[in-house]
Amino acid sequence: MKKLISFFAVALFLSIALAANASMVGTGDLDVTWSGPMVGNYYGDYDGQVVSSNFGYTTGVEEVFCVSKDDGNGGLYDFYTITSDLTNYATLSKAAWIADNWTRWGSDDATKVEAQKAVWQIMGVMNEVGTSGTDYAIYLAANKISNYTTDRWYYAVSPSQSAPTGTNYQDFLTPVTPTPIPAALWLLGTGLLGLVGLRRKFKA
């Protein structure tokens, strides 16, 4: 009986540990650049590229969102799906909603910066959202959302042990399904044309 109780105790302990890390999908090398327009003393538009990962995830240069107040980016990141087992899920899910929906207000860099300001406000990074305008509209819309689920974004966390200086770097939202690059679209298009050609040949 004692062995059985011990077995269940160990199993329960392991299941709690696994649940705490249930949404981590792997580690990857994320390179981020930033540009204007400026938000106070900070750049407001972030673009990132996942160069490599241990779970088959890479991207071209994509729009990403900064979700923390640390400085810079440090290369190696832990990638998580955005699920309720994350400690900051309540705010992160709202930030993910903004990432999914910001183009409702426009698709240019200026609008992306307005969306980034709303993300920073939601995440408690800084308060640069005004009392009117696009940033305020996005922020108000996101604040009405609760328990938002999405499979379109990863939460990229910079672990201190992976950073060269031993300090944390900024964390980001990165797209799960990258925007297809023109070369990939060209290959897909020529492949489809080839299939059409073969079909016509067999019909003739």
Structural descriptors:
204 residues, 24% strand, 6-stranded antiparallel β-barrel, disordered C terminus, 6 strands, globular, 5 helices, alpha+beta
Question: Can you offer a commentary on this structure?
Answer:
The chain has 204 residues and is an alpha+beta fold. The protein contains 5 helices and 6 strands, in the order H-E-E-E-E-H-H-H-E-E-H. The chain has a 6-stranded antiparallel barrel. Strand 1 and strand 2 form a beta hairpin. The longest helix is centred in the C-terminal third of the chain and has 22 residues. The protein starts with a helix and ends with a helix.
Assign an overall shape. Answer: globular
Query: Helical percent range?
Result: 25-40%
Instruction: Work out the helix count.
Output: 5
Beta-strand residue percentage = 15-25%
Structural class: alpha+beta
The helix/strand series, from N terminus to C terminus, equals: HEEEEHHHEEH
- For the secondary structure, the number of strands is 6
Radius of gyration: 21 Å
**How far apart are the termini?**
77 Å
Average the pLDDT over all residues and give the rounded result: 81
User: What strand line-up does the widest sheet have?
Assistant: 1-2-3-6-5-4
**What quaternary form is this?**
single chain
> Which blocks of ≥5 consecutive residues have pLDDT under 50?
1-21, 181-190, 192-202
Main β sheet profile:
6 strands, antiparallel, barrel
> Into how many domains do the coordinates divide?
1
